[in-house]
Amino acid sequence: MDPKSFQLFPEQASTIAGHVDALYAFLVLVSAFFSLLIAFLVVWFAVKYRQKGNEGPPVHDPHSEHGAAGMILEIVWTVIPLGLSMIMFAWGVSIYFTESRPPADSMEIYVTGKQWMWKIQHMEGAREINELHIPINRDIKLTMTSEDVIHDFYVPDFRTKSDVLPGKYTTEWFKPTKVGAYHIFCAEYCGTKHSGMIGTVYVMTQTDYDEWLAHGSGEGSMAEQGQALFNQLGCGNCHPSVINNQNGRCPNLVGLFGTRVELKDGTNVRADESYIRESVLYPESKIVAGYDNIMPTFKGLISEDGMLKLVEYIKSLGKQAGTTNTSVPLPVQTSATPLTPSNSKTGAMKTAPRPAAMPAAPAPPQGNR
Ligand code: CUA
Predict the structure, then answer these.
(1) What is the pLDDT of residues 97-131, one digit of tens each?
(2) Ligand 1 lined by 190 (C-beta under 6 Å)
(3) Three-state SS at 213
């Protein structure tokens, strides 16, 4: 970050940065090589085959250039570019897959974009605006949404960015490798002050980070704040959030997160952040098998920040699921959710009993949503 030194590239401050730069260097080198080769040949041929004196256009012998040598030439200039572009493709895909799959034990942080600022919430309760404090050498996963238009969370030094969309959760992850301060940019034009929608990531040692975190908001963890909101909105009047407390009208939320939920229409869906958000704001869109559509919408009653707290609260209920056998965690799940063997038949949500009058639907086809 020395401003005096001229840098072609931003600093490499995350584990992925070197890989991205290597691929980029490869693309530049290949492009430069062929650009120079073609430019050289254009000039060379122009000189070599130029028209001399008044001898007229050169006479073509159609057989001279379409023999075996011509065939070999054609194969060579087809196969080499094909090979090169396949290398670029495979290399790019492998980096893309790495960047789009957060490691399971990542530290989770929530980001809300709005015109024109970044609001950030830590699970422990700390909140910040246009600043993100994180510890070094930890996988950091951002779950992001927008309150208004499309933004894009971009940290050049980490070589990672992702769109931040209204009405949807997107993720981004990185593992910072150097202590320091790094720019955050909004990389999607979002209105007048788009260029001012910037911030700073502070990568700290674990000790410094713990110290920073200790000066938190004093409002409790995100899950605790989510629980307060849950109670304030009266969700608990219907949804049991205690193990083995079932009232039969609404699904129990304990151990729900990360499981597959069987729906009334016979499909099933993974209970992830987006599913929870949708169920709160558009409860009619996915009805759990065995239940009726009796939930009112909470659209307009919960801010995006509040929604993330609710999500975090319901996640925290999932993490208590180690003491219950009512859920079936997926193989790929947050590490805190133990893979308890289950005695339920399918991946259906079994956190509340079905009313006896409503037999289980026949085994649903594996939904693809
Ligand atoms: Cu937000 Cu551009």
Answers:
(1) 999 999 988 999 999 999 999 999 988 878 889 99
(2) yes
(3) helix
